[in-house]
Amino acid sequence: MLQSTPDKSQARIAAEAICDGFVASGAARVETDILLPAEVLLDLYGEDIRGRAYVTSDPERGEMMLRPDFTVPVVQYHMAGDGSPASYTYFGEVFRKQEDHPERRSEFMQVGYEEFGGSDSAVSDAAVFGEFSKVLAPLGLRAATGDIGILIAMVAGLRTTEDRRTALMRHIWRPGRFTALVKRFAGLTPEPASRTALLASDAPLDAVGVMIGLRGESEITGRIDALRSDAAQAPMSAEEVDLISAVLAVSETCPNALEHLRDIAVDMPGLLPALDRFEARCDAMAKRGVDVDALAFEASYGRTSMEYYDGFVFGFYSEARPDLPPVATGGRYDALTRRLGQGREIPAVGGVIRPDLVCDLGGLA
Asked: Is a pLDDT exceeding 90 seen at residue 305?
């Protein structure tokens, strides 16, 4: 059954009130287009975005997408300026297909708050999380946190080939593919018979199979050469596979998670800089009055729905309504500013709130 939809005017009133609160905290109000160039989003997310976004075409502008979120256009807006530190707020409709969750709304409103240029990432992370905690406090939500930066550090420190690290890094946000790659690189899953024959063969390409699809011969040959090169490498060690599993399984309160991860870092020292940032963030949160001792941390949090984040991630959930998606989500996305800023990177952290879900839960008054 589809979720009941609150009166749109009530969701808009709630959105305006939240947005006004962020303005009072010093954020500048911005507006973005609803129709966005598909090319930019496809470059960032790959073809996976087509499964979630509504795509249309324009005779002059080419392929376009109805806005799936605000982060990309807001980052583009800021990167077009002089790069000075700034904070922004906004609200409006976003559009997402819900094939996996047909009971959820495909058109809904978001209110957002973004900070750019903070000189201390731990302080900025704590400030943004604190803003969202303060706004949502009347709803009594459960907060969840994680850190994609720890997972990036984990992969970067693996004792394996650069090609394998690159492949794993690309799939951090796709847990199923990531796990399949780890097993393949460790020799824990057999190669398909067709690939085994191909990798062992020195036959010319036209003897291997019929040319079909859009890929050219040189592209296919290059892929085969890469597979053969990888097959000649030694498998990843069982120790590293176990360490990866141990990191991904961490799910405790922040202090206990930090202690557990520091234990793992004895055998995986590449984690240490990311763990120092985690500890600094916890200290900054505590100074803002956040009960860090009770705050949940999940190392795998955000891997399935936050693919442009590369550091701290968070979400707020209603335990009384487990059928609802998160009421708010956010995190750090420094790397996204580099990709959209043509090499110029600016520290950035922010998040969004669903005012329709706020209304579903009784509002903030």
From this structure: no
3-state secondary structure labels for all residues of 27-96: CEECCCCCEEEHHHHHHHHHHHHHHCCCEEEECCCEEEEECCCCHHHHHHHHHCCCCCCEEEEEEEEEEC
How many C-beta atoms surround the C-beta of residue 225 within 10 A? 10
Burial class (CB in 10 A: 0-12, 13-18, 19+), 293: exposed
Task: Report which residue type is found at 54.
Answer: Y
CA–CA gap between residue 199 and residue 203 (Å, rounded): 10
Let me know the angle formed at the C-alpha of 20 by 146 and 356, rounded to the nearest 5 degrees.
60
Q: Identify the pLDDT of residue 225.
A: 55
Stretch (H or E) spanning 274 = helix 272-287
Phi and psi at residue 173, to the nearest 5°: -85, 5
CB 360 within 8 A of CB 7: no
| pTM of the predicted structure, to 2 decimals | 0.86
Residue 73 in tokens: 């256009």
Q: What is the distance between the alpha carbons of residues 355 and 93, in angstroms, rounded to a whole number?
A: 11
Other CB atoms within 10 A of residue 354 CB: 25
130-144, 254-268, 329-343: least confident range: 329-343
pLDDT tens track for 202-248 = 555 554 555 555 555 666 555 555 555 555 567 899 999 999 999 99
**β-bridge mates for residue 330, sequence order:** 314, 351
Q: Could you please report the per-residue DSSP string of 324-344?
A: S--SEEEEE-HHHHHHHTTT-
Task: Work out the average pLDDT over 85-109.
Answer: 87
67, 74, 40, 37: which is closest to 52 by C-alpha? 67
Q: In the prediction, which pLDDT does 128 show? A: 97
What is each CA distance from 75 to 30, 100, 117, 308, in whole angstroms? Answer: 11, 28, 12, 12
| Average pLDDT of the chain to the nearest whole number | 87
CB 125 within 8 A of CB 281: yes
